[in-house]
Amino acid sequence: MILVTGGAGFIGSNFILDWLAQHQEPVVNLDKLSYAGNLNNLANIKDDVRHHFVHGDINDRALVDQLLKQYQPRAVLHFAAESHVDRSIHGPAAFIETNVNGTFQLLEATRAYWQTLAAEEKSQFRFLHVSTDEVFGSLNANDPPFSETTAYAPNSPYSASKAASDHLVRAYHHTYGLPTLTTHCSNNYGPYHFPEKLIPLIISNARAGKDLPIYGDGSQVRDWLYVADHCTAIRRVLEAGTPGDTYNIGGWNEKTNLEVVHRICDLLDELQPKSNGSYRDQIRHVTDRPGHDKRYAIDARKLEKELGWKPQESFDSGIRKTVAWYLANDAWTEQVLSGEYKNWVALQYN
């Protein structure tokens, strides 16, 4: 049995679907179902007896203690997080509450549980913390990509809260001996991505005939990682990673935001053409967000060298799969485009 936090979110739900496709080992899924948590992501396994969903918060120490005692997991995989930079600018408190305080509560509960295990189970147990490349700050155009030894320099309330959670995880390994693993991923994309993020937002707006908002001149660079590749990397780190170590997970796909939007528009022109003109005609440049990091890039050579993992999808193959998925899953998109989401978009891009 493994315990997954945030398993109804974008990456967490993709991980659970991938896990149950590869393993018979059951999963306990703890998620508070905030705006970005969606049980429809897991509709394909709603009757699978290996999936045990629990509606709850990682800050609820009594609940986490109960789950650990009841299910006796051999590993905790911690995906649960507030994860949108723009939202952290408007409301940073939620990011401190979930990403810092929630990680602390989860670590405390896990440490207490881990200390009750027999020696063999104790040595085999793992706490895997899923983090982000944004903790490393911003790169200039000619800087080398982030490595596992890059100094932390977070620039947003979101990345600062994730950096704090990373430091807590590190401290619990070095102080208490808790066998932790930390991963830093680049920008994920793929199925079930909540449409406040760039790629699903552009797909949704393009199809609805709305403006395609691009911050500033669109020259910000990100390394793009297809979510299925991220899931296989996490499984590999859980399987063979060294306790106390960190691993960067990247797609080797650096693209400017404008390049990404152009590629999506071109794919939509091919797969669902408009009656006249191109989807590129809907692009609109909007005021850049405060403190917008210029470039992220991940050096994932350590993971390839030590654990034999590398991504299977190029950006071209992954983005084609992603656009095709959204075209085939209108019902999912309609369900998540709630009034709350529409209010958020109006606030952010007005």
Describe the structure.
- The chain has 350 residues and is α/β, with parallel strands linked by helices.
- The protein has a domain at 2-191 and 225-252 and 292-314: Rossmann fold.
- Helix content is 45%, strand content 16%.
- The protein is built from 13 helices and twelve strands.
- The strands form three sheets. A seven-stranded parallel beta sheet has the order 3-2-1-4-5-6-10, with helices on both faces. A three-stranded mixed beta sheet has the order 7-9-11. A two-stranded parallel sheet has the order 8-12.
- The radius of gyration is 20 Å and the shape is globular.
Physical arrangement of strands within the biggest beta sheet:
3-2-1-4-5-6-10
Secondary structure: number of strands: 12
Radius of gyration, rounded? 20 Å
Euclidean distance between termini CA atoms: 46 Å
| Mean pLDDT level | 94
Low-confidence stretches: none
CATH architectural name of the domain at 2-191 and 225-252 and 292-314:
3-Layer(aba) Sandwich
* Helix and strand composition category: alpha/beta
Q: Could you give a short account of the major beta sheet?
A: 7 strands, parallel
Name the CATH class of the domain at 2-191 and 225-252 and 292-314: Alpha Beta
Element string (H = helix, E = strand): EHEEHEHHHEHEEHEEHEEHEHHHH
The helical percent reads 40-55%
What name goes with the CATH superfamily of the domain at 2-191 and 225-252 and 292-314? NAD(P)-binding Rossmann-like Domain
